[in-house]
């Protein structure tokens, strides 16, 4: 999500540099591509240049969507690029909280969900401030959003005393070689923290759990099998069975599993294969929808195609044949 809003900030900065104010930034005017890699701001239908905006506000007109437009826009006053930054802050809050910004009583996101840095609250509140004290530019918004993901503490301190957002930020730059070189105690603590988040049952921690599993699946490719198993098992369940953001399954984790199956060496590959076979053991595939079969087929194909596929070849082949028969029957 941080990537999407940085992309939106870049788009808004470009429009502002051209003298255009969007005036109607809201979730309905943001399109995320199917692969979730990019976000686009659309519907410039009421966008105006500064000159046109001044002409319109002379007559006291307020154009935009209630709940997202700035106070000066509601009042029909003259607006400039800062009205878009107000709307961007409101939209970021709603994207993270799943609900609109409370009117007159801001509820801190980082208090309800420790995977969200306090710097995000500071940024949003500055977007909601009166125009003269608001975030000055979309570029500044994007820079501060990026800075909120940075951690300047040693990993040992983060593990001992850090918040969840600091742990995620500290792990994200690591690769498989970095992670396997961590002291065993630190790796164990990382896995324990991940397990605590994943099994918490808290809806507010769901995004953090997904992000942690996605990262650990990637950076854990070289750790001992028993440790990697602790990552793979819940990832498979969340990828295909758990409900995330109103729908069954989780696309980022499905993609992460396919990547891991393709990049894994022998031991990690065997863990993914074994855990997938255990997962499928009690699943009645004939009763599953086509999307479910297709995303699992993608993982099976990646496992069988990888040069590290040495264990469980026969069992994976049997499952693939069952997939083939089930899908052909439809």
Explain this structure.
The protein is mainly alpha-helical and 330 residues long. The protein folds into 2 domains: 2-147, Transferase(Phosphotransferase), domain 1; 155-328. The protein has helices spanning 2-17, 50-57, 71-74, 82-97, 109-112, 118-127, 138-147, 155-161, 164-171, 176-180, 184-198, 206-219, 225-240, 251-263, 266-280, 290-305, 313-328, and strands spanning 20-21, 30-32, 39-41, 48-49, 243-244, 247-248. The strands form 3 sheets. It has a two-stranded antiparallel ribbon. Strand 5 (243-244) and strand 6 (247-248) form a beta hairpin. Helix 1 (2-17) packs antiparallel against helix 7, helix 11 runs parallel beside helix 13 (225-240) and helix 13 (225-240) packs antiparallel against helix 14. The longest helix has 16 residues, at 2-17. The chain is globular and about 70 Å long. The two termini are 37 Å apart. 33% of the residues are buried. Residues 55-61 have low confidence and may be disordered.
Brief characterization of the structure:
58% of the residues lie in helices and 4% in strands. It has 330 residues and is mostly helical.
Which key terms come to mind for this protein?
Transferase(Phosphotransferase), domain 1
């Amino acid at each position: 999500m941080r990537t999407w809003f940085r992309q939106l900030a870049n788009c808004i900065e470009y429009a502002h540099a051209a003298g255009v104010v969007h005036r109607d930034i809201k979730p309905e005017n943001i399109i995320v591509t199917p692969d979730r890699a990019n976000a686009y701001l659309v519907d410039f239908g009421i966008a105006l240049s500064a000159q046109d905006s001044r002409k319109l506000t002379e007559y006291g007109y307020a154009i935009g969507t209630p709940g997202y437009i700035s106070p000066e826009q509601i009042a029909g006053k003259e607006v400039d690029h800062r009205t878009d930054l107000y709307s961007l802050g409101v939209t970021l809050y709603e994207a993270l909280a799943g609900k609109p910004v409370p009117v007159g009583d801001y509820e801190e996101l980082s208090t309800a969900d420790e995977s969200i840095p306090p710097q995000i609250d500071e940024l949003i509140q500055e977007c909601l401030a009166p125009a003269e004290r608001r975030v000055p530019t979309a570029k500044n918004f994007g820079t501060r959003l990026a800075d909120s993901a940075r951690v300047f503490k040693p990993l040992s301190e983060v593990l001992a005393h850090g918040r969840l957002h600091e742990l995620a930020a500290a792990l994200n730059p690591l690769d498989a070689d970095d992670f396997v070189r961590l002291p065993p105690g630190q790796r164990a603590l990382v896995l324990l923290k991940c397990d605590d988040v994943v099994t918490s049952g808290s809806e507010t921690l769901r995004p953090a759990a997904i992000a942690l599993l996605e990262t650990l699946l990637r950076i854990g490719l070289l750790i001992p099998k028993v440790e990697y198993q602790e990552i793979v098992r819940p990832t498979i369940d969340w990828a295909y069975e758990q409900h995330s953001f109103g729908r069954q399954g989780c696309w980022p984790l499905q993609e992460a599993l396919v990547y891991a199956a393709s990049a894994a060496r022998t031991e990690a590959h065997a863990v993914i294969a074994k855990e997938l076979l255990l997962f499928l053991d009690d699943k009645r595939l004939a009763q599953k929808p086509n999307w479910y079969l297709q995303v699992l087929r993608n993982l099976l194909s990646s496992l069988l195609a990888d040069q590290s596929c040495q264990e469980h070849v026969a069992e994976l082949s049997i499952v693939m044949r069952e997939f083939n028969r089930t899908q052909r029957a439809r």
